[in-house]
Amino acid sequence: MHRLLSFVTAAALSAGQAVAGPYSTYSNDPANPHDAPIHKNSEEIRAWANAVSDYSPAPGVGVMYQDPVAGFGSLGDLYDPLNPPETGTKPPFHGVDELFNGIVGDLTDSYGFIGIDDPGSITVSFPAPIYDGPGHDFATFENGIIIGGYLSAELAYVEVSTDGVNFARFDGISSNDAPSGGWPGYESFDVTNIYNLAGKHANGWGTPFDLADLQNHSLVQSGDVDLQDIRHVRLVDIPGSGYFVDSQGHDVLDPWITYNSGGYDFRLSEGVAGLNVVPLRWDGAPDETGAWATPNWHDGNSGGHQPPSRARMVVDVEGSIVTVDRDFISGVGEDGPAGSVQVDNATLVVDSGIELEVTNTVTVGTGGLLQVDGILTADNVIVHGTLSGSGAIVVVGSVEIRGVLSPGGSGPGVLLVGESIELTEALTEVPEPSALLLLAAGATTVCWFARRRTPGRPACCGSRFGRGIIRGRSSTCR
Q1: CA distance linking residue 435 with residue 456, whole number of Å
Q2: Is the pTM of the predicted complex or chain greater than 0.85?
Q3: pLDDT over 60 (residue 205)
Q4: Which helix (H) or strand (E) holds 219?
Q5: Are residue 261 and residue 286 in the same domain, yes or no?
Q6: Does 304 lie in the same domain as 200?
Q7: Which of 450, 442, 360, 444 is nearest to 405 (CA)?
Q8: Average model confidence (pLDDT) for the chain?
Q9: Structural domain for 441, as ranges
Q10: Domain check: are 378 and 457 in the same one?
Q11: Could you tell me if 262 and 304 lie in one domain?
Q12: Mean pLDDT comparison of 53-62, 346-355, 439-448, highest-scoring range
């Protein structure tokens, strides 16, 4: 960010520090009840916005900062019309190699002015809608830097839309009267006085937003914006001269004027994160076989989606068979891990040689079948249906099996469990011969059997059933 401090702003640096407000500080502040920041690697994130539907920067952004998808897309800044650049000159760091022609009202050149040109903006969309759920629903990320215990970053208004046409703006607050730190060109501000404006948290930390704050907005009341079906988020840069105001009429201040990469900075890969995201469901017809990676997932209103990183995936079309035919592993490729997977009255097959990583829980409902011939890694596994396959299942947390454990295939299946195994009314049909090896590396292995193959003989932890073995560091048999 290239910044040049105006005379008025420079004078404000000596005005003293503002009184701390009630809102969160610039980074890790989990106890703040209003807007505790979200780290970019937080497991609360279910999906990132993955498409830019409109990018309209203010004039003068440098060519190196006009790519919000592959690089950075700056929204640009606006000059003071009462103090324009000198005619025939180009201010230092102005992003475009063009001399100012002296016409403030020229809308075709690379010089934008407050009150004449529109501030820069960007609109992004999600692979599945975000909705008004528990807590905050999404978060925005910028690249602010900490200077002298305060934050130097550009701010933006935040708006959401269902149809991409009607946008409801959050009521933001910014009560700073002057910079609290920094130096000319890099003023920093006390962000505890800022709320519901994008950009108030440092690089790597996201500013959370709760859609419930918009429930009384006129567009929500009219039905033009559905808080349970938000598909677009728009960020509108705020040139921090004090010309633009917050919802309470306060002047909004941030470093101004900025050049080249000026204004709010956006990068799609870490731009807007969905926290409450509508689950995607398999859109196949009954008895249809389909691949996991094909765009046959729908969110209740439209189809054609591919499984996004960390989204919740639900296979609930009765009789359908979905095959995981490509790796979905954290940090591999563009797909990332699935956040959670639920299989109801359908079959999910992880092919041999394929690895599926799930960052949360795999649930197999009654009537569901999970067949793992490759590798499945998950935090937790809950089975009310059938767990089958000849591959490996690695579980960081616990496994709860209330349905049928039915290993099969050409080789031995392996279930590696980090914490506990709970077989509650499970193994209603103990496989014989069993090819599954259950290994519990954690502290507890708890097993219940509703029916045993040989009545009166215990068949629990540390014992054998068929050729299968259940082992644990400590065990409880009930």
Answers
A1: 24
A2: no
A3: yes
A4: helix 218-221
A5: no
A6: no
A7: 450
A8: 79
A9: 280-477
A10: yes
A11: no
A12: 53-62
